[in-house]
Amino acid sequence: MLAVLPTIDASSVENYYCGDDNCYDLLRITRDATKADIKRAFRAVASKSHPDKFQDPTDKKEAEIRFKKLATAYDILRDDEFRQDYDYMLDHPDEFYMNYYRAWRRRNYPNVDVRIVLAVTISLISAVQYYNGWSKFDEAIKFFSSTPKYRNHAIEIAKQEGLLSAPSDKKRYKGMTKQQIKAEEEQIIRKVIEDKMDIRGVYAKPTIYDLLWVQLVMFPVWTFQYLSWYCSWIYRIWIIKQDYQKEDKLYIIRKKMGVSQGQFDSLDDETRESYLKLELWKADKFKCWKEQRDEEVRVKQASSGRFKSYRRYLKNNGPGRMYFDD
């Protein structure tokens, strides 16, 4: 294994720079030279060593080799980061592995601004979020438009608003085939469901605030809003002992239930109103409600054939077991 690894010494590192030569000596400058000094020095020495100035093939070939060294030295010293790595090698010649890594990274890694990489990455994530959000929303619309309960309700609304007419209305559907009429009706039904149906949670209609770019931009604003709300909560509830408002009660209930804001918002208004009527923001009443709810779930699972089969499977096989009987 060790025989496969390359032998790293001072010459291995120097090959990534100016070889056996010193880049500063090639351009006839000192290490404290500025970028303007480096540029002037390169033009001065390069003009004397340019291959086009020589006619003899041997001299021309030697000039080409020297001109490449000068160009390499200029490329290294005019780049601040590249020059910093080179100066580090000159000051720490015994750190072979560190110098080798710095030189190899600078030579082989693409010279791309990190800000561009981050911008492209965030844009790709935002594009995926946008596509996934609309796919989920379209999936929900397809479900509701194919479910008789919601479809029939959408048809009634469309008829009341004059969007749909009876199939016998020849004036409206004049010149249209049955397939075209059916396609138009489906489009109207989908439009009614999109406008009238209150879809919440994961399948809700996406907005620009679901995109990572917008979230990053709005993060300081949302942070300020949250801190303002929290300070207001401390002042109203803890200091002046103000009674809970409706939003305060819902916030406490959500926290006690341990669900996210999105999950809580996906509940219908009747369910949340029932929580308020039960006064679940009070610790004792929430405890009684939770115990009753857990008992209902336990009884329901006990009478469920699928859950019984699952329990028998766990009892006989246990979780995470694997057999190779085949």
- The rounded Rg comes to 37 Å
SS-derived structural category? mainly alpha
* Poorly predicted regions: 1-11, 320-326
Q: Total number of β-strand segments? A: 0
Mean pLDDT: 85
Strand content of the residues, in percent? under 5%
The biggest sheet amounts to: none
| H-E order | HHHHHHHHHHHHHHH
Count of individual helical segments: 15
Instruction: State the end-to-end distance.
Output: 39 Å
| Helix proportion | 55-70%
| Coarse morphology | elongated
For this entry, give a set of tags.
326 residues; mainly alpha; 0% strand; disordered N terminus
Structural summary, described in words:
There is one protein chain. By secondary structure, the chain is mainly alpha-helical. The chain is 68% helix and 0% strand. α4 crosses α5. It starts with 9 loop residues before the first helix and ends in a 10-residue tail after the last helix.
